[in-house]
Amino acid sequence: MKPVARLLSLPARWLAPMLLAAFALTTTAISLGFQWQLVDEQVTENESRRLRERLGAEQNRLSAEGSLANPLLVRRLVGSLGLYSGMQHAHLVDDKGVVLASLKRSDIGMPFTDVQSLNPELQGMPALWAGSEAGATLQVTRPPGSSLLFGRASLAPGRELVTVVDLSQPMAVRLAGLREQALREGLVLAVLVGLLALLLHRVWFRRAEQLARALTTMGEGHLQARTGLQGRDELALIGAAADRMAERLQASHAQLKRLNDVVDRSPLVVIEWFNVVGCPIHYVSPSIAQWGYAPEPLLQGRMTYDDLIHPDDVAQVNREIDHYIDHGPDQYRQEYRLRCADGRWIWIDDRSSLTRDEQGRVTGISGVLLDITAQKEAQIAQREQAEFLRLFYELPLIGMAISSPHSTQWLQVNDRLCEIMGYPREQLLKMTWSEMTPAPDLERNLVLFEQMKAGEIDSYQMQKRYWRMDGSLVHTEIHVRAVRDPDGTIKHLFATVQDITERLQTSQALSDQKRLLEQAEAMAGLGSWLYDTHTRHVWWSRQMYRNIGRDEALGPPADLKAYLDCLHPEDRDRAERFMRTGPARAGRRHAEFRRHPALGPERWFRGSLECRALPDGAGHHYSGILLDITQLRQAQTNLERINARLEQRVVERTEQLSAANRELEAFSYTVSHDLKAPLRGIDGYSQLLEEEHGAKLDDEGRQFIRRIRRGVQQMGALISDLLDYSRMERRTMEQQQVDLQALVDLVLEGHAADIAASRTVVTQQLDPMTLHLDREGLAVALRNLVGNAIKFSQSHAQPQVEIGARNEPSQRLLWVRDNGVGFDMQYHDRIFGIFQRLQRAEDYAGTGVGLALVAKAVQRMGGRVWAESQPGQGATFYMAFPREGSAHGVPGP
């Protein structure tokens, strides 16, 4: 390989002629070889044909002579073959392998095998005929690489003529001619090669040397050099390509120089390291000066790059670099903090590349560094803003959603919207807002939606309803805004959804309340007004305009003077004093005045005013009402007139009652004396008749006398009860302290005989109590109630009467309870009427005045009486009297 390398290192102007000469010699040798082979084939073919012809002739002659059995002639014929050019051996062999005739007399009579052993060229002869065709009588062959031609002719009977011809002489003759021809051709080829080398030197190599010099000049950096080759040959094409390459390199070099200048002026910093121990830096761009550093300390190793990286980041940065070196990729990106010369820290975006050798080992690292502190701070602010937006988006106050501009599909919803719609987030995102919107809200919404898609509007706001998951409708207020790409295409729709169901209900309730208030004001004739001294704002209610008689379209009066002009001139001063009362006077203030006669019929009003100070001393807030009291004024006038007439009537009626009372007292006196006197006479005479003449009368007569006496006694009792009832109606009730226990004991003592006679059990449940009442009136009521209880319970096997009393918050309650016959409650009000009885007089004696007397007495004492009973279950009679100092009356049952 070294000689070839030395050969190839020669200049082309020497190498080309040498190669051409070598080519000529090689071509001549190859041509000579082909011609020699051709000559060999031609000689072999010619000599084989001649030998075959001779053998054929001798075969015929020997066959003819051999049949005469003349050995001498046969030998002479074989010996004549020696005259054949190049014949070395000729042997006639019989069927036993004995040589019958030969060119040498010594070989005759010898076995042919012995002859072969003596002549080495004959030893391979049997192998030559091994592949011969069976029955062939004439054969000629030449062994490969041999100059001998072997022939064989078969003779009868079993004899063969074997010959060996040497081809050296004809081959030598032909070779001599071939050498002369090769010499002539070599001389001609040498001359052509010389001429071609001269032509190449003149036409090619001199121009190639010019191209080499131009390329060398370009390689030295002089890209302005050009080859100057003209033509359309390969060198000219190479030269043109080299010139174009030089032009491109010159432009690229200029551009690269400009880029280097841009890089040096840009915020980018370029650093390159060797991947050896310590990672020394072999290049730093001058732009590192923006961070306060010069390239020299880093290039000289007085400062390492790790010294500049933040201590919290350096370990992570080196681990990542080791990972990239071991596992790739060869281009990677890192972000870390770097210290500037002034001590501040900046964020660096490091985009590095790894350079590897053929074995894949990293030989160098280059990095492009960019200060991204502003971007990093912006990212942090953006993340904070995104987190703020996320928190705002998830506020539980308002529903938010993002929907597709190409359909009505929800793309994103917050929790509040899910709560408003009543759907889980996963299910809501599978739905469209159009299928959740009922008609006619859907039609209105789709019109606005299409206007937004057409670019006619960028946002819209409306109130609409949605179907909730539970089938109910929720009222909402939506605000939809289009978010567009720079080309104006809608990217998505952002919507806020607020549940206004309660607001609408509240608004409706407020509207209803306002309507009711206005109706109430209209029905009551009550107008209201407000005034703020800070804003000078005046507000009147609708009824206020009606009261004053002012057109509502004019609005309220602009100031106090205009308001006073609406009032009656006679009341103007009083109203002005009322309105100008300073805020120092606390509480509500009132005044009565009339409106101006020119504004309608006379109307009286009662004005009320209240003042409240505004915060921070900003002024005062006045509020007031104007009540129409015209009817009240008219009623008051009528009432005064009626009261005057009534007082006159009271005087007259008082006089009439006094006269009636006097007449009633006279009547009572008459009844007490004039009616009882005859009764006493009847009773006395009937008693005398019974005592003195009773024996003369039969039973029927005595029965008549007893009935007369009972009727007289009952009549007397009835007159006494009527007198008592009349006295209770007329007597003056004397309020005094009454010990209830002592009074009850006195009443029971009066009924002791009846109690004993009827074997009645009397129990008491009396709270300690002192009543401020009329003693006699209470005694009358208790006597009648206890007497009735004893009388109506005597038919019971074990009569029982209970007398009770207890203190209650607003009253004193007394009761008398028995277990007698009772009564039906439908007759409750009837039993307290005079002469009203529920039982027959034959069964229970009485006048029918007792309970009426009880009711009258309790009524006169300011109390109330009632009963509770069932037939056959006894009865309970209650008396209730208000407590002393109670502001309320006695409550009903």
Explain this structure to me?
This protein has about 900 residues and is an alpha+beta fold. About 45% of the residues lie in helices and about 20% in strands. The protein is built from 23 helices and 27 strands. The chain has a five-stranded antiparallel sheet. A five-stranded antiparallel sheet has the order 7-6-10-9-8, with helices on both faces. Strands 12-11-15-14-13 form a five-stranded antiparallel sheet, sandwiched between helices. A hairpin with a 6-residue loop joins strand 19 and strand 20 (about 620-630). About 20% of the residues are buried. Residues about 885-893 have low confidence and may be disordered.
Brief summary of the model shown:
It contains 23 helices and 27 strands.
Chart the SSEs and their pairings:
Blueprint: H1 2-8, H2 12-66, H3 71-79, E1 87-93, E2 99-102, H4 112-118, H5 125-128, E3 138-141, E4 148-155, E5 159-166, H6 168-219, H7 234-265, E6 269-274, E7 281-284, H8 295-299, H9 311-327, E8 331-339, E9 345-356, E10 362-371, H10 373-393, E11 399-403, E12 410-413, H11 415-421, H12 425-428, H13 441-453, E13 459-467, E14 473-484, E15 490-499, H14 501-524, E16 526-532, E17 537-540, H15 542-548, H16 560-564, H17 572-579, E18 589-594, E19 604-613, E20 620-628, H18 630-693, H19 699-730, E21 735-739, H20 740-750, H21 752-758, E22 761-766, E23 770-774, H22 775-793, E24 800-807, E25 811-818, H23 850-860, E26 864-869, E27 875-882
Helix pairs in contact: 2-3, 2-6, 6-7, 18-19, 19-23, 20-22, 22-23
